[in-house]
Design brief:
With 612 residues, this protein is of the alpha/beta class. Helices cover 35% and strands 22% of the residues. The strands form 5 sheets. The protein has an 8-stranded antiparallel β-sheet, covered by helices on one side. It has a 6-stranded antiparallel β-sheet with strand order 5-6-7-8-12-13, with helices on one face. A hairpin with a 6-residue loop joins strand 7 and strand 8. The mean pLDDT is 94. The structure holds 2-deoxy-2-amino glucitol-6-phosphate (AGP). 2-deoxy-2-amino glucitol-6-phosphate binds next to helix 10.
Length: 612
């Protein structure tokens, strides 16, 4: 939920730290701070608010400019409100060290009591400050900072991605992780550490990803990685997959709009090397190692949160429809505590854009501990979920910075379709049927392009409706999860309340909500239940609802029933969500812009939810 950055090298640290925070601001943005080490002094500046507020404070602190070592933090409050005292970095009460932390120390109250009894004082309400004073307490008798950090972490229960600097060893940063992500960018005589490679990529594309319960000791002349038990850990240098350009706005007003328009290219990247049209074969290198085992799969459980859960619901339909494998989708936060039944032959598929969502990670571990084979559908390369699954498929959607997930959703559905086709072909699907579906999937990026041409018109359709505080979204079959996703997008960025429903469920209660002029979005492309959906539209209109329909190009009937029609090209039903979701993403985007909302950083939300 927070973003941490650190720098040690020859360059001035402050600018690098602040730029890094800007790249991580989507992780949390209610307060921020920087602490640098100069001439053995810890110099700290922090404040509630955005990075821009912090920059204003730093402009009044010229003495912090020269330092070449420092740490920084952008916060998402878990313990204590967004105040200056609760903002990070936290300096220990003896003034010896400073710490930034992403995660939750669950036993902080107990530790705080012990430390208070030893005479320590606390100025904030945070769990993180307790960790700072605990390390400081141990540092009094420890030879090195890393020894103090290691010993302290043995006392801690909970999650952390942290970085610590100290006056006693001024050219050193010690970092550690358990449950929260941490990457070390390896440059030439310099190191940039961060929660996410987005803050590193403009300095170097060489990175070391820490695993749980690992520590790194970093100086300008080198780094070493250790376990909490002080055992050396050899680490591979990995390449960061995306460039700075890919992270920049690229001429769009918001990351969300940029990422909506990136979907054709993102889907092409998801399909690259995986659709062998010449041999009518789906190739998924990431699951080949367990390919034979997967064919024997007797049950699939998709687990995820939020938008990824909606993709999981489509995955359930795809696996049952195309691979004839019994499937279900589970909210990760419920699944992890529900004592689930995991018989032999169960495969759990963890779906996550960030690869760091705490509930999804915990659900994955729960299922693995009970014997399930674990597959990952993940975007962030090197993320925890990716590394803790038996096999997986990366989305290759590129970095998704807008908090509202868009291209990750469509690429998650693409990967699910590839997996279902891969398994379906090995179980019963004919080469002919597979070839047809592969051809249709290969055509999707161009079809997405045509849907995107309606962007301005969708803005006009929304203009007359943004004052309504309640909307309904309806869909059937593969488009029911799309209705759920459309409602979520509208809620999370425009703050309009919306409900997504299977269209036929409306008359069992929610129809009572409909009144004259109320916006009702109906996902109604040509498919086996089209006539049923038309009847649902008539039920809405009979009560005065204002219908915005998403329909198949060339459908001459729909205009008689809908006030506005947003068109999508025709494609097979299993692939329709890839097209029908786009007008709903744009509806939400324009509603948020026209209501003056902060599209890329909507209130109360963060891009990666790393605490439960
Ligand atoms: C979607 O727009 C939201 N940002 C949120 O629901 C998100 O999908 C959820 O938190 C899961 O995130 P993940 O895919 O990174 O695991």
């Amino acid at each position: 939920m927070c973003g941490i950055v650190g720098y040690v090298g020859r360059k001035k640290a402050q600018g690098i730290l602040v730029e890094g925070l800007k790249r991580l601001e989507y992780r949390g943005y209610d307060s921020a701070g920087v602490c640098v080490l100069d001439s053995g002094q810890l110099l700290t500046a922090k404040c509630p608010g955005r990075i821009s507020d912090l920059t204003a404070v730093l402009d009044t602190r010229p003495e912090m400019d020269a330092a070449t070592v420092g740490i920084a933090h952008t916060r998402w409050a878990t313990h204590g409100g967004p105040t200056e005292a609760n903002a990070h970095p936290h300096v220990s009460d003896d003034g010896q060290l400073a710490l930034v932390h992403n995660g939750i120390i669950e036993n902080f109250l107990a530790l705080k009591q012990v430390l208070t009894a030893k005479g320590h004082e606390f100025v904030s309400e945070t769990d993180s400050e307790v960790l700072a004073n605990l390390i400081a307490e141990l540092y009094r008798t420890a030879d090195t900072l890393e020894d103090a950090v290691r010993t302290a972490l043995h006392e801690v229960t909970g999650t952390y991605g942290l970085a610590v600097i100290s006056r006693r060893e001024p050219d050193k940063i010690v970092v550690a992780r358990r449950g929260s992500p941490l990457v070390v960018g390896v440059g030439d005589g310099e190191y940039v550490i961060a929660s996410d490679a987005a803050a590193i990529v403009e300095h170097t594309s060489n990175a070391v990803y820490l695993n749980d319960n690992e520590l790194a000791v970093i100086r300008p002349d080198g780094m070493k990685t250790l376990t909490l038990d002080n055992m050396p850990v050899p680490k591979d240098l990995e390449q960061i997959e995306y460039s700075l350009e890919e992270i920049a706005l690229g001429g769009y007003e918001h990351y969300m709009l940029k990422e909506i328009f990136e979907q054709p290219e993102a889907v092409r990247n998801s399909l690259r090397g995986r659709l062998n049209l010449r041999e009518t074969r789906v190739q998924l290198g990431g699951i080949e190692p367990i390919g034979r085992e997967l064919i024997k799969t007797r049950r699939v459980i998709f687990t995820a949160c939020g938008t990824a859960w909606h993709a999981g619901l489509i995955g359930e339909f795809l696996f049952e429809d195309l691979a004839r494998i019994p499937a279900e989708v589970e909210y990760a936060s419920e699944f992890r505590y529900r004592n689930p039944i995991i018989p032999d032959g169960t495969v759990v598929v963890a779906i996550s854009q960030s690869g760091e969502t705490a509930d999804t990670l915990a659900a994955l571990r729960e299922a693995r501990d009970r014997g399930a084979t674990a597959l990952g559908i993940v975007n962030a390369v090197g993320s925890t979920i990716a590394r803790e699954t038996d096999a997986g498929v990366y989305l290759h959607a590129g970095p998704e910075i807008g908090v509202a997930s868009t291209k990750a959703f469509t690429c998650q559905v693409v990967v699910e379709a590839l997996l279902a086709m891969y398994l379906g072909r090995r179980k019963f699907m004919s080469q002919f049927s597979l070839g047809e579906l592969m051809g249709a999937l290969d055509a999707i990026p161009d079809q997405m392009q045509t849907v995107l041409t309606q962007n301005d018109r969708i803005g006009e359709v929304v203009a007359g409706l943004i004052d309504w505080d309640n909307w309904l979204f309806l869909g059937r079959g593969y488009n029911y999860p799309v209705a759920l996703e459309g409602a979520l997008k509208l809620k999370e960025i425009s703050y309009i309340h919306a409900e997504g429903l299977p269209a036929a469920e409306m008359k069992h209660g929610p129809i009572a909500l409909i009144q004259e002029g109320m916006p009702v979005v109906v996902v109604a492309p040509r498919c086996s239940t089209y006539d049923k959906v038309i009847s649902n539209i008539e039920e809405v209109r009979a009560r005065g609802g204002r219908v915005i329909a998403v329909a198949t190009e060339g459908d001459s009937r729909i205009s008689r029933y809908a006030d506005s029609v947003l068109w999508v090209p025709d494609c097979p039903a299993p692939l329709q969500p890839l097209l029908t979701v786009i007008p709903l993403q744009l509806l939400a985007y324009h509603a948020a812009v026209q209501r003056g909302c902060n599209v890329d950083k909507p209130r109360n939300l963060a891009k990666s939810v790393t605490v439960e």
